[in-house]
């Protein structure tokens, strides 16, 4: 008997146990926040391996964010010591897709060393394509980009998009979609949505490929199922259609990615597609105090519901929820920082017991300043992450070009960085020539045909750049790839370039250090294969794979280190999904911020309410919400109205600080008139 497994099963409640031990058919766990859905997944992985004897490499568990995947991996790891967990896939959907693409490059018609375009690269490509037609503004590009992304998420091919176009705009977008896909292919590149789209389409079109993957994955587990989009669902469905062995867990009240194509209806679709689906509901919450749970339940009751759920908790009543009204955003940030400082001592808590959540990344800026002022260690997830720094984008472009010389965007970014006197005219001529010849910019840059188009100096400079890259590529092939990469940055004197461009030497120093950190990370990533894409085969991880993983992580806006050292956690409400903290602060409970103005205008308040629900249910012991009466936006001080969501919380469990008087509107108007009259009098 497996003692550890038995003990573990004993800690579960009967319904959770049922979900873990039901293995013969499809299983859906539909339950509210903190009810142990993720725990069911992690325990079930261990159960499948330890109790049912399923090899770890036959199991794939997927979730949404890298952070959640890491957490899951950690929890599973504890139950699978030694080699038991070898070959297990615990990753994000996108990493799983990346691995499928990597394994099926040839069938997909890609050459090895493909590039992963981040949204900025994709936008640059679209901009190029659109400028061919007319002058376009950023808004238009964004709209088309969003539309293309939606099509891919819904598995609509360019041909289908074209034939279904209903008006001129759609027709235009569909034609761009076609050109965009064609160009990506020519660059030997894929974009973020392709990571799911390509495998799904491939599985549909190539039965042998699908059969191969069905042999490879026997059991799938999906966390946060409510946020899967059509293509992700299709991927799961295709893989699992025969065996019907999977477990998905989700909570329709936590669906917060509709704007990115998520389809909560996939929950219902599942019942239609898999008639033998077993649905299990969990009702006990193990995370939060009664007060926090009641607040969450009361708030979400304002949304219409397909599935009724009741959540209860035995964690005791707990403290009131505090709502703190501040004069302005600066006072708000100051207040949160000083609160954390004092409460940490009072509660003898750790820094990492505190999380501050907000709607938009910009809200973190002031908070960072205040936290630094008090010397409070913190970790900011997402936002202006490591990867959006210029020096890192340069370095990434070098890496990308090294593994895929056809990556024109990478070429363009660094051909003149550091300065090589290769100007826009040269680039334009080169680009025209490359288009005509149907080759990449890199390949074109050393072709003889250029001689007729460019002056000798320009030719020479281009050729020199070409040789630089070619030489490093050769050295990478022959021996120590990392050493070759490191010496490249020295040869081009990237550091000197940083010094020339930085406002102060210390800034340049820091930037150069960032580049070395990136390369160290690359090295670690090659050694550890740490993104959960260990596909069971024993092949050693090469630099190409490691670089594409870095790009993927970059896109998913994760920070460089995976340190779980003792730091206050700063993250957006979106990024907080699935996580939990003893003490949670939610900032900016104001109309136009939460709910966000765009959502108010678009009439998608329900999704904002779910977002607030996600935030509230992250808290285990205490929850504090803050807001500002005034906030600077577009260089102006604006008056803020408290969020409608505050009115939807149970009044008795809330203690306000500085609550604005509930004036009747008539009085307020009068007071306003008085003020205007007073002002007029003053001016006269
Ligand atoms: P979310 O919807 O926010 O993702 P969830 O349903 O995935 O939440 P978990 O994160 O799995 O919930 O569990 C919430 C907390 O409850 C965790 O700290 C977990 O360890 C604990 N927990 C889950 N099940 C039990 C149980 N049977 N006994 C004690 N604690 C439990
Ligand atoms: Mg969870």
TrEMBL record:
<feature type="domain" description="UvrD-like helicase ATP-binding">
    <location>
        <begin position="10"/>
        <end position="289"/>
    </location>
</feature>
<dbReference type="InterPro" id="IPR013986">
    <property type="entry name" value="DExx_box_DNA_helicase_dom_sf"/>
</dbReference>
<keyword id="KW-0547">Nucleotide-binding</keyword>
<feature type="binding site">
    <location>
        <begin position="31"/>
        <end position="38"/>
    </location>
    <ligand>
        <name>ATP</name>
    </ligand>
</feature>
<dbReference type="InterPro" id="IPR014016">
    <property type="entry name" value="UvrD-like_ATP-bd"/>
</dbReference>
<dbReference type="InterPro" id="IPR005752">
    <property type="entry name" value="Helicase_Rep"/>
</dbReference>
<feature type="domain" description="UvrD-like helicase C-terminal">
    <location>
        <begin position="290"/>
        <end position="578"/>
    </location>
</feature>
<dbReference type="GO" id="GO:0016887">
    <property type="term" value="F:ATP hydrolysis activity"/>
</dbReference>
<keyword id="KW-0235">DNA replication</keyword>
<dbReference type="GO" id="GO:0006260">
    <property type="term" value="P:DNA replication"/>
</dbReference>
<feature type="compositionally biased region" description="Basic and acidic residues">
    <location>
        <begin position="656"/>
        <end position="673"/>
    </location>
</feature>
<dbReference type="GO" id="GO:0043138">
    <property type="term" value="F:3'-5' DNA helicase activity"/>
</dbReference>
<keyword id="KW-0238">DNA-binding</keyword>
<dbReference type="GO" id="GO:0003697">
    <property type="term" value="F:single-stranded DNA binding"/>
</dbReference>
<comment type="function">
    <text>Rep helicase is a single-stranded DNA-dependent ATPase involved in DNA replication; it can initiate unwinding at a nick in the DNA. It binds to the single-stranded DNA and acts in a progressive fashion along the DNA in the 3' to 5' direction.</text>
</comment>
<keyword id="KW-0378">Hydrolase</keyword>
<dbReference type="Pfam" id="PF13361">
    <property type="entry name" value="UvrD_C"/>
</dbReference>
<protein>
    <recommendedName>
        <fullName>ATP-dependent DNA helicase Rep</fullName>
        <ecNumber>5.6.2.4</ecNumber>
    </recommendedName>
</protein>
<feature type="binding site">
    <location>
        <position position="287"/>
    </location>
    <ligand>
        <name>ATP</name>
    </ligand>
</feature>
<keyword id="KW-0347">Helicase</keyword>
<dbReference type="GO" id="GO:0005829">
    <property type="term" value="C:cytosol"/>
</dbReference>
<dbReference type="GO" id="GO:0000725">
    <property type="term" value="P:recombinational repair"/>
</dbReference>
<dbReference type="InterPro" id="IPR014017">
    <property type="entry name" value="DNA_helicase_UvrD-like_C"/>
</dbReference>
<dbReference type="GO" id="GO:0005524">
    <property type="term" value="F:ATP binding"/>
</dbReference>
<dbReference type="Pfam" id="PF00580">
    <property type="entry name" value="UvrD-helicase"/>
</dbReference>
<dbReference type="InterPro" id="IPR027417">
    <property type="entry name" value="P-loop_NTPase"/>
</dbReference>
<keyword id="KW-0413">Isomerase</keyword>
<comment type="similarity">
    <text>Belongs to the helicase family. UvrD subfamily.</text>
</comment>
<dbReference type="InterPro" id="IPR000212">
    <property type="entry name" value="DNA_helicase_UvrD/REP"/>
</dbReference>
<comment type="subunit">
    <text>Homodimer.</text>
</comment>
<feature type="region of interest" description="Disordered">
    <location>
        <begin position="651"/>
        <end position="673"/>
    </location>
</feature>
<keyword id="KW-0067">ATP-binding</keyword>
């Amino acid at each position: 008997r497996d003692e550890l497994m038995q003990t573990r099963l004993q800690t579960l409640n009967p319904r959770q146990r049922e979900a873990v031990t039901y293995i013969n058919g499809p299983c859906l766990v539909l339950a509210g926040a903190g009810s142990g859905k993720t725990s069911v997944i992690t325990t079930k992985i261990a159960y499948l391996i330890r109790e049912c004897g399923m090899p770890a490499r036959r199991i794939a568990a997927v979730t949404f964010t890298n952070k959640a995947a890491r957490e899951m991996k950690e929890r599973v790891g504890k139950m699978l010591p030694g080699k038991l967990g070898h070959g297990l896939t615990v990753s994000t959907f996108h990493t799983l897709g990346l691995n499928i693409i990597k394994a099926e490059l040839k069938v997909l018609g890609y050459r090895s060393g493909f590039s992963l375009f981040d949204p900025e690269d994709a936008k640059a490509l679209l901009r190029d394509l659109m400028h061919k037609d007319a002058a376009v503004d950023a808004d238009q590009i964004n709209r088309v980009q969003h539309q293309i992304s939606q099509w891919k998420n819904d598995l609509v091919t360019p041909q289908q998009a074209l034939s279904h176009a209903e008006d001129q705009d759609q027709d235009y977008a569909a034609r761009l979609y076609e050109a965009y896909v064609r160009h990506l292919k020519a660059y030997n590149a894929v974009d973020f949505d392709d990571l799911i789209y390509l495998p799904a389409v491939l599985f549909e079109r190539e039965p042998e490929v699908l059969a191969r993957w069905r042999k490879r994955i026997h059991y799938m587990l999906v966390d946060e199922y409510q946020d899967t989009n059509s293509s992700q669902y299709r991927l799961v469905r295709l893989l699992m259609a025969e065996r019907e062995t999977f477990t998905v867990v989700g909570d329709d009240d936590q669906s917060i990615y509709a704007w990115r194509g998520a389809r909560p209806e996939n929950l219902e679709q599942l019942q239609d597609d898999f008639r033998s689906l077993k649905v299990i509901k969990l009702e006990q919450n193990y995370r939060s105090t009664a007060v926090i749970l009641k607040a969450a339940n009361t708030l979400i009751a304002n949304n219409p519901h397909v599935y009724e759920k009741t959540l209860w908790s035995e964690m005791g009543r707990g403290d009131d929820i505090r709502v703190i009204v501040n004069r302005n955003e600066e006072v708000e940030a100051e207040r949160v920082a000083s609160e954390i400082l004092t409460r940490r001592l009072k509660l003898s808590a750790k820094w990492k017991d505190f999380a501050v959540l907000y709607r938009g990344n910009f809200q973190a800026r002031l908070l960072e300043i205040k936290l630094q002022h008090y010397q409070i260690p913190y970790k900011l997830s997402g936002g202006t992450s490591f990867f959006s720094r210029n020096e890192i984008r340069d370095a990434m472009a070098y890496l990308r070009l090294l593994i895929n010389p056809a990556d024109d965007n990478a070429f363009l970014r660094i051909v003149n960085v550091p300065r090589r006197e290769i100007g826009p005219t040269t680039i334009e001529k080169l680009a025209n020539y490359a288009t005509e010849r149907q080759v990449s910019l890199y390949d074109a840059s050393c072709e003889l045909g250029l001689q007729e188009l460019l002056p000798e100096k320009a030719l020479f400079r281009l050729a020199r750049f070409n040789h630089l890259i070619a030489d490093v590529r050769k050295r990478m092939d022959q021996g120590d790839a990392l050493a070759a990469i490191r010496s490249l940055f020295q040869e081009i004197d990237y550091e000197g370039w940083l010094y020339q461009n930085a406002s102060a030497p210390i800034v340049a120093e820091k930037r150069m250090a960032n580049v070395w950190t990136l390369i160290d990370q690359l090295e670690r990533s090659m050694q550890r294969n740490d993104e959960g894409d260990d596909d069971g085969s024993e092949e050693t991880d090469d630099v190409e794979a490691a670089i594409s993983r870095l790009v993927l992580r970059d896109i998913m806006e994760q920070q460089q280190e995976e340190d779980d050292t003792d730091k206050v956690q700063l993250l957006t409400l979106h990024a907080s999904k699935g996580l939990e903290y003893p003490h949670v602060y939610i900032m900016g409970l104001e109309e136009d911020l939460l709910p966000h103005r765009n959502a108010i205008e678009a009439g998608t308040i329900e999704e904002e309410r779910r977002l607030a629900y996600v935030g509230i249910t992250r808290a285990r012991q205490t929850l504090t919400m803050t807001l500002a009466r005034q906030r600077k936006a577009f260089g102006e001080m604006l008056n803020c109205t408290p969020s409608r969501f505050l009115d939807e919380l149970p009044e008795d469990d809330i203690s306000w600080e500085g609550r604005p008087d509930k004036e009747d509107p008539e009085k307020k108007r009068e007071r306003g008139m008085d003020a205007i009259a007073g002002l007029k009098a003053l001016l006269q």
